[in-house]
Amino acid sequence: QVQLAESGGGVVQPGGSLRLSCAASGFTFSNYGMHWVRQAPDEGLEWVAFIQYDGGNKYYADSVRGRFTISRDNSKNTLYLQMNSLRADDTAVYYCAKRWGNDALDIWGQGTMVTVSS
Amino acid sequence: IVMTQAPATLSVSPGERATFSCRASQSVSSNLAWYQQKPGQGPRLLIYGASIRATGIPARFSGSGSGTEFTLTISSLQSEDFAVYYCQHYNNWPLTFGGGTKVEIK
User: Fold this and answer.
1) Residues of B with CB under 8 A from a CB of A
2) Which of A71, A76, B33, B75 is placed for a possible disulfide with A104 were both Cys, Cβ 3.0 to 4.6 Å?
3) Is residue A101 pLDDT above 90, yes or no?
4) What tens digit of pLDDT does each residue of A46-88 get?
5) Rounded CA separation A71/A104 (Å)
6) What is the pLDDT of residue A27?
7) Alpha carbon of A101 to those of A23, A32, A66, B10: distances in Å?
């Protein structure tokens, strides 16, 4: 079945780096744009970044632009989020999600927790 | 674009109708989606295009509106519908979500 599985979360010190991965299965990954969305503890959803199906166009939230980089490897059916210069307010569950139509998000993973703390 | 949802919490009895709203700070046309999220799970797409039910979503869920005012209605609440509901616009970048409406058992 259609599935997304995030990995790579953990505890990191402020100023540190982390790379998240999202493994896709059950659909033709290379045909779809993909998003990262995060959710701080007991908070709502915040869109983070988008990458076009072929890696061509990328968009970022102002809160992460210049620190985070979204990328993908269509040969491995995998989406990535490289996170640098991490701050305490980056602490959240990070979800990957598949684009549907003009950017509704129809398939979501279970999320991976990132904690930025000294 | 700021998305504002009301109310923050809605207390409803099983079998009753639930209606909640989402307002955009500027027009998003019909580029509006609704999601359901249960504790410990990723969100689930319910509605896109403001009123189109996603695959597998029961007919008791319906969406309406365009421009800046949107509504999600659950015609008869089932036990599995108690969750948090978010709206999201995708009219332009950046995408933004509303703060959510929690539907709890009355």
Assistant:
1) 31, 33, 35, 37, 41-45, 48-49, 54-55, 86, 88, 90, 93-100
2) B33
3) no
4) 999 999 999 999 999 999 999 999 999 999 999 999 999 999 9
5) 20
6) 96
7) 21, 9, 27, 30
* Amino acid symbol at B88: Q
| pLDDT under 50: residue ranges of chain B | none
Q: Distance, in angstroms, between A47 CA and closest chain B CA?
A: 6
DSSP notation for A65-117: BTTEEEEEETTTTEEEEEE-S--GGG-EEEEEEEEETTTEEEEE---EEEEE-
Residue A63 distance to chain B (closest CA, Å) = 11
DSSP one-letter code for B16: S
- How many inter-chain contacts (A to B, CB under 8 Å) are there? 65
Task: Say how many C-beta atoms besides its own lie within 10 A of residue A97's C-beta.
Answer: 27
